């Protein structure tokens, strides 16, 4: 059965608004990062945090579970996309709940896979003892960074809201304010890993025969959702302002490595020109429990090492077939 999966993705994104974290008044700007090229020269370009990518994997899971995979449980917070998890509703108000790890795992697939942090101040007469517990995420993301050697562009655009009325009453002009947003284009890459073996795992039972808090069938459904959420990311379902600026996404390369026996090395990032060869060089050879799948334009691949697929869907179907 599938135990660990890594993804190395290279994609073109035109006119995207993926990380508008710099906001000042009516101006929203895209985050710019400093980093080094392959010659050690400093460059600046738009980049997207791993937190943003992880959030959209979470959103993908949430939408899949609320749709086709509806029998999978979600807590009250994850069901509606609230960030403070695990959540419950008391007196018509959403609040963070404190329960044993086993209960939280069984009651919410997103809390299980994406983790949670509970840090609550003490209440009542016991002023010295609060609650602090956490579950580490089973899904991991790098930043989405520009591929070295390619240009990136960004441009700030002026938008305005237009009243549907013929006139605007005095004092309401601010409701028709002009605002500025930035959009960027480029060829980007990111890497990600999914620790499949730890989905459903109750940490205190690690090493025991009954280490999982949920049944096998439910674990498999959760793994399928976690894998399928990557497909949504590859389709462009990431970033802010999807209502009016879905990225013009064009996937270029996808390298997926999976193991049926344990953890794998993280892939070398596709921002580097030799990422493919270096990633292959990291993977243990002659291990029948490890498979390397590739979709893209590379030719002359060693068929004994790398399996080239004709479509991205073929990769996802093989992954789900190993669950």
TrEMBL record:
Q: Quote the Pfam families the UniProt record gives.
A: DevR (PF01905)
Instruction: Return the InterPro entries for the record.
Output: CRISPR-assoc_Cas7/Cst2/DevR, CRISPR-Cas7/Cst2/DevR
The protein's UniProt keywords, in alphabetical order, are:
Antiviral defense
What GO biological process terms does the UniProt entry carry, in alphabetical order?
Answer: defense response to virus
Q: What does this protein do?
A: CRISPR (clustered regularly interspaced short palindromic repeat) is an adaptive immune system that provides protection against mobile genetic elements (viruses, transposable elements and conjugative plasmids). CRISPR clusters contain spacers, sequences complementary to antecedent mobile elements, and target invading nucleic acids. CRISPR clusters are transcribed and processed into CRISPR RNA (crRNA).
What protein name does the entry list?
DevR family CRISPR-associated autoregulator
Q: Which organism is it from?
A: candidate division WOR-3 bacterium
């Amino acid at each position: 059965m599938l135990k660990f999966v890594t993804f190395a993705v290279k994609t073109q994104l035109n006119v995207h608004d993926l990380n508008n974290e710099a906001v000042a008044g009516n101006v929203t700007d895209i985050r710019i990062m400093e980093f080094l090229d392959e010659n050690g020269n400093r460059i600046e370009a738009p980049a997207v945090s791993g937190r943003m990518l992880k959030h959209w994997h979470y959103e993908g899971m949430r939408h899949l579970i609320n749709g086709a995979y509806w029998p999978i449980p979600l807590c009250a917070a994850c069901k509606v996309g609230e960030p403070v998890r695990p959540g419950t509703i008391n007196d018509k108000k959403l609040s963070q709940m404190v329960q044993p790890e086993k209960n939280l795992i069984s009651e919410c697939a997103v809390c299980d896979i994406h983790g949670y942090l509970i840090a609550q101040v003490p209440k009542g007469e016991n002023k010295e003892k609060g609650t602090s517990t956490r579950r580490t995420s089973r899904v991991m993301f790098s930043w989405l960074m520009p591929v070295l050697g390619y240009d990136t562009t960004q441009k700030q655009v002026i938008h305005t809201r237009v009243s549907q009325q013929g006139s605007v009453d005095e004092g309401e002009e601010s409701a028709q304010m002009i605002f500025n947003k930035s959009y960027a284009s480029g060829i980007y890459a990111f890497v990600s890993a999914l620790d499949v073996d730890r989905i459903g795992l109750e940490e205190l039972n690690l090493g025991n025969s009954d280490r999982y808090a949920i049944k096998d069938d439910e674990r498999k459904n959760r793994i399928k959702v976690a894998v399928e959420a990557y497909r949504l990311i590859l389709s462009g379902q990431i970033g802010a302002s999807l209502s009016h600026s879905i990225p013009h996404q064009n996937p270029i390369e996808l390298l997926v490595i999976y193991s049926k026996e344990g953890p794998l090395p993280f892939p070398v990032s596709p921002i580097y020109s030799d990422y493919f060869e270096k990633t292959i060089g990291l993977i243990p050879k002659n291990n029948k429990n490890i498979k390397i799948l590739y979709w893209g334009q590379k030719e002359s691949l060693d068929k004994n090492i790398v399996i080239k697929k004709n479509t991205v869907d073929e990769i996802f179907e093989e992954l789900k077939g190993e669950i």
